Amino acid sequence: MIERIAIVDGVRTPFCKANGTFKDIEADDLGAFVVKELLARTGLDPNLIDELIFGNVIQPPHATNIARVLAVKGGVPDHVPALTVNRNCASGMEAIINASNKIRNGDGEIYIVGGTESMTNFPILFRKGMREWLIQLSKAKTLGSKLGLLTSFRPSFLAPEMPKIADPLVGLTMGQTAEVLSREFQVTRKEQDEFALASQERASKARSEGRFREEIIPMPIAPEFEKIQQDDDGPRDNQTFEDLAKLRPAFDKLTGTVTPGTSSQLTDGAVALLLMKESKAKELGYTPIGYILNDAVAGVEPERMGLGPAFATSKLIRKIHRDLSDFDLIEINEAFAAQVLSVVKALSSDEFCKKELGRDGAVGKIEHDKLNVNGGAIALGHPLGASGARLVLTLVKELKHRDKKLGLATLCVGGGQGQAVAVEVE
Predict the structure, then answer these.
(1) Residue from 16, 368, 401, 412 carrying the catalytic annotation
(2) Which helix (H) or strand (E) is 7 found in, with range?
(3) Phi then psi dihedrals of residue 145, to 5 deg
(4) In angstroms, rounded to a whole number, what is the distance separating the alpha carbons of residues 45 and 284?
(5) Section 115-131 average pLDDT
(6) Is 172 inside a domain boundary?
């Protein structure tokens, strides 16, 4: 029998809107903060760590292999190696899976994993003309050559290349891929607004009840560090259906249905978890908060990237010989309301599952009272590299709170992929 992977504990920063509370904190510092706190809370001797693996999508220019940078900043000894993984939106989950596989393969016993992202500090690039001009200026040796280059400068060189969260394979933004699914699965604007409202209401309720306080580290706000951020700042306590219905489509102005209110928020945040072999956890006297059972990853057409969770979930439940109905709680990352609702419709469709998943019939129906019970990324936000780890952390905490056992965490991945993890709580 394959030994389970124990999740000893996990922590995260508050998730805060980009260009807001954490605008002066870089991704490596967000990550270092959660690593340091995780070590303090668990009391683990950092010399026992075999490796640190962290997910990150927008690699900061000042901190390539950001995992190594945040590991050392976070108090992990120099002799412990660190690896950055990037599977776009699933990077934090990929870190968990990567470490789990290393433990199963006997490469190590104790790993710190997680993800970090500063959507605020997205690099903005100069255009090619400006880059070439700057290179020539740096190579100029004489005053005359430098003056000559100055006369060749054009104001148009200063126009930046603004970043877009878009797929280079099909030229669509992620929001446009959500529009593709909304049309394919006939997800109405009303359905999307209702789903988004439920996400906001559930997240606001969980926040007011202190449900996330067990996983969130209160964080000092840079640069003065005089105030403390204790909670996520994305949930809108007074969100109404009427307000959502007033919003205009953001990605297809003429015939679209996806709005800012039914899309995930751009967010800064970090998550860290301590994983180890189950027998090692017992040896060290830990009581794990949960266990990683198995995982799956799948590829889909880039323009239908939001369906990734349907394909990954189908593969996963086959691996663990379970039915969809066996899961007590399910977390699907809310990239977009249309995307999550399309996944729900796909999994319950005999036609889709026969044609696309090679099954005899529908995978199953996801009950509303099992799905994202404390809200999701529409309300909490989606720091790309951290979200996959946040799903797993939130899921095991909520399973334990409800005295439930089996959970599924899954998310779509830009570029056309899906990833899923099954967890268990005792």
Answers:
(1) 412
(2) strand 5-12
(3) -65, -35
(4) 10
(5) 85
(6) no
Write the DSSP symbol of residue 255.
T
406 lies in which domain range?
5-122+264-424
Q: Measure Cα distances from 187 to 94, 172, 191, 253, 261 in Å.
A: 29, 19, 6, 17, 15
Are 265 and 233 contacting, i.e. CB atoms less than 8 angstroms apart? no
Q: In total, how many domains does the chain have? A: 1
Contact of 270 with 117, CB cutoff 8 Å = yes
- Does 381 reside within a domain? yes
Question: Is there a catalytic annotation at residue 382?
Answer: yes
Q: For 334-393, how does the pLDDT look when each residue is reduced to its tens digit (9 = 90+)?
A: 999 999 999 999 999 999 999 999 999 999 999 999 999 999 999 999 999 999 999 999
- Mean pLDDT score of the chain, rounded to an integer? 95
Q: Is 89 a catalytic residue?
A: yes
CA nearest 336: which of 221, 140, 172?
Answer: 172
Identify the CATH number of the domain in which residue 117 sits: 3.40.47.10
Catalytic residue among 89, 321, 353, 368: 89
C-alpha to C-alpha distance for 179 and 201, rounded to whole angstroms: 24
Above 80 in pLDDT, residue 203? yes
Question: Is 300 within the bounds of a domain?
Answer: yes
Whole-model pTM? Answer: 0.93
Residue from 79, 321, 368, 382 carrying the catalytic annotation = 382
Query: Does residue 401 fall inside a structural domain?
Result: yes
